[in-house]
Amino acid sequence: MRWMIICAGILWASVSLAAPERYVLDKRGSTIGFSFDLEGQVLTGQIPVAAAHVVVDFDNLAGSQVSAQFDVARADAGNLFMTEAMLSGSVLAAKDHPQALFRSRRVVAQGEGARLEGDLTLRGVTRPVVLNGQIYRKQGSSSDDLSRLVLIFTGTVSRADFGATGFARVVGDTVRLEIIAAIARAN
């Protein structure tokens, strides 16, 4: 009986070593980049990542989870005029909705990367989105060092899907996203 308990303990310990890993966000190395068309020109900007909860299961990517909060009120469209227009009530409505939220529903392995299927809440409106991306180790780290990672995900959203229809005659509906999240294994 004692031997069985010891074996069960060893088995449980080995399974728990392969468990999903929780990571914390490094805000300095993380941002949401976006681009959009303004009368045929591509403009870019950034939205700071306020917080994130990341769990990565390297043995079963489907067991991974991502949720992130974005500081819409501090978004920057590259110049004062464009930023004020973007934060206005007819676009992001940042005064009434200073935060946006992404929450993954499903993570799917896709070649060397992953596809995140989830929900984005922007302007108080929640819609499904799909992001495609990669997970990278920090430059110079050994191949088995997963303590510090960089996640890069891209996707597109429709402004109209979220009711952000202001300036539609001059600004395109599609917004391209590039999310860069620097994360470190939680202790």
Q: Mind sketching the topology for me?
A:
Elements: H1 2-17, E1 21-38, E2 41-56, E3 65-71, H2 80-87, E4 99-110, E5 113-122, E6 125-137, E7 148-158, E8 174-185
Antiparallel strand pairs: 1-2, 1-8, 2-3, 3-4, 4-5, 5-6, 6-7, 7-8
What does this structure look like?
The chain is mostly beta strands and 187 residues long. It contains two helices and eight strands, in the order H-E-E-E-H-E-E-E-E-E. It has helices spanning 2-17, 80-87; strands spanning 21-38, 41-56, 65-71, 99-110, 113-122, 125-137, 148-158, 174-185. It has an eight-stranded antiparallel barrel. The longest helix is centred in the first third of the chain and has 16 residues, at 2-17. The radius of gyration is 20 Å and the shape is elongated. Mean pLDDT is 89; it is low at 1-17.
Biggest beta-sheet profile = 8 strands, antiparallel, barrel
Spatially, the strands of the biggest sheet line up as: 1-2-3-4-5-6-7-8
Beta fraction: over 45%
Radius of gyration: 20 Å
